[in-house]
Amino acid sequence: MTIADNRTRWLALYVLCLGSLMIVLDMTVVNVALPSIRQDLGFSETSLAWVVNAYLLTYGGFLLLGGRLGDIFGHRRLFLAGIVLFTLASLACGLSTTQWMLVTARTVQGLGGAVASAVSLSLMMMLFTEPAERAKAMGIFGFVASGGGSIGVLLGGVLTGLINWHWIFLVNFPIGILVTVMTLRLLPGERTPAMSGRLDVAGAVTVTASLMLAVYAIVNGNQNGWTSAETLGLLAVAVLLLALFVGIESRVRSPLVPLRLFKLRNIRVSNTVGVLWAAAMFTAFFISALYLQLVLHYSPLRVGLSFLPANLIMGAFSIGLSAKLVMRFGIRKPLATGLLLAAVGLALFVRAPVDGSFVVDVLPSMILIGIGAGTAFNPVLLAAMGDVEPSEAGLASGVVNTSFMMGGALGLAVLASIAASRTHSLRLAGAGELSALTGGYHLAFLVGAAFAAGAAVLGGTLLREAHPAAAHEAGHGATAATETS
Fold it and tell me: How far is residue 323's CA from residue 379's CA, in Å, rounded to a whole number?
């Protein structure tokens, strides 16, 4: 391979990461800006939740379908389609002057984000074939996946504090154009569809409906009540649709999700780890932001800047050290060590007081979470993608993205419910408002730490180590598939 070809591959990776970063941070970038959006557009407390939920609903619902469409019609085509749709929807969000316009645009944004996210990881795997290079590339990509949420909090705070909330969306427009142009120039085009076979329409409809109903029930669980007829009914329908989907997949000739995929141990374990880890990371992003804003009374800008140390450390470990650790120790030890460090970081938040200091009570947790996430995400993604055939890389990418998405949504909903319940109990016991809020957050942090620790134990004991030679051969197979597709 020539130096020019090698340079092109790395530039293509940075373009994929930039596109993925836009999509990942849009899950969290709005959170710091929600009070400003509510005041400007006149949202009620209930309707304001749809600025977040509309995005999560279509993003979570269409990840699996987007990944499979990439396998059938070409990963590059689907990535471009998703980025273009996401970019146009971002412009509509930024120009929104009414509630319905913003919520509708956020819905379309989630659809475009799901399609692009579902194939971006498979495109990265196909660009890099050598084990050492793939580990390094995965580290960079892992930083985007793990750090995107906290970068969103940082960016949301900076843009809302210095300009206004419209710019948290408008900033995506020039970035989206750049990603589109550079993708056309740097990523190899597909001359024919990536794989033959008809789309499993029945499977696509049932699994998408199941995921969307599950996300809807989860994100509204705190508001409607977890034991309410609506929440339990929606979850029951989602489970029934999922069972119907499994039945369909076991019978059709060209299934949307071949069930044999889940016979691979690393697929099962890494996706379970992903669910637990995403739940823990969403705790770090959201509950700590609430603590800083509502208990310590930080401004949006100051909240955003508080996440900067974790982002910088996460980036340094993801891009530099993580790949070296994987090449030397395999995937199990770095994964378990990173997740345990993050668990300790979350547990340290349990001692954060009402009159906490950033240096004493916040920074140590941020440092440990940054080190842990930067170390762990590379091996999690390598485990999830390492055993699949090139023709199913898009599907595997969609599956792992869905696991992170559902884990984050479920974890956040459960932890917010736990925090609210504990806060309510403390208020009834006579605690002051800030003490009650802090006590609720403490319990959420403790449960989040347990999620991270559980993920560390599962990953450290059950994952099967990938052999470098096997990874090398799989990489060459992926490259060949790209060249002939």
Answer: 9
Name the residue type at position 210.
S
Catalogue the long-range contacts made by 191-197 (C-beta closer than 8 Å, 24 or more residues apart): 191/485, 192/484, 192/485, 193/72, 193/73, 193/74, 193/485, 194/70, 194/71, 194/72, 194/73, 194/74, 194/75, 194/391, 194/394, 194/481, 194/485, 195/71, 195/72, 195/391, 195/485, 197/72, 197/254
Q: In this structure, what DSSP letter does residue 387 have?
A: T
pTM metric for this prediction: 0.74
Evaluate whether 66 touches 398 at the Cβ level (below 8 Å): yes
Beta carbons of 161 and 305 less than 8 angstroms apart: no
Residue where the block lists tokens 């659809």: 111
Query: What tokens appear for 385 in the block?
Result: 């993608």
Total H helices, total E strands in the chain: 22, 0
Q: Which amino acid is located at 42 in the chain?
A: G
Nearest to 333 by CA among 461, 147, 473: 461
Dist CA 485 CA 151 (whole Å):
35
- DSSP helix/strand/coil, 31: coil
> How does the average pLDDT of the chain come out, rounded?
80
Q: Which residues, in sequence order, are CB contacts of 360 under 8 Å at separation 6+? A: none
Tens of pLDDT, residue by residue over 30-87, are: 777 777 888 888 877 567 777 877 887 788 778 777 877 887 788 888 899 999 999 9
Residues 3-199+256-484, CATH architecture: Up-down Bundle (1.20)
Within 13 Å and on the Cβ side, how many CA atoms surround 395? Answer: 22
Task: State how far the Cα of 79 lies from the Cα of 123, in Å rounded to an integer.
Answer: 9
Calculate the alpha carbon distances from 446 to 116, 249, 440 in Å.
34, 39, 10
- H helices of 172-228, in order, are 172-186, 201-219, 221-224
Residue 52 has a pLDDT of 77
Identify the segments of the chain with pLDDT beneath 50.
1-4, 192-194, 467-485
Which residues neighbour 105 within 8 Å (Cβ) at sequence distance 6 or greater?
89, 90, 92, 93, 96
CA nearest to 213, candidates 181, 244, 190, 256: 244
Q: Which tens digits make up the pLDDT trace of 283-315?
A: 677 788 888 888 898 877 787 788 888 878 887
- Whole-number Å distance between alpha carbons of 263 and 460: 19
CB 62, CB 185: distance < 8 Å: no
**Which tokens in the block code for residue 426?**
């403390």
Give Cα separations from 262 to 224, 270, 399, 457 (angstroms): 34, 11, 10, 20
Could you tell me how many residues make up the chain? 485
Assigned token pair, 299: 């401004």
Contact by Cβ (8 Å): 436, 426:
yes
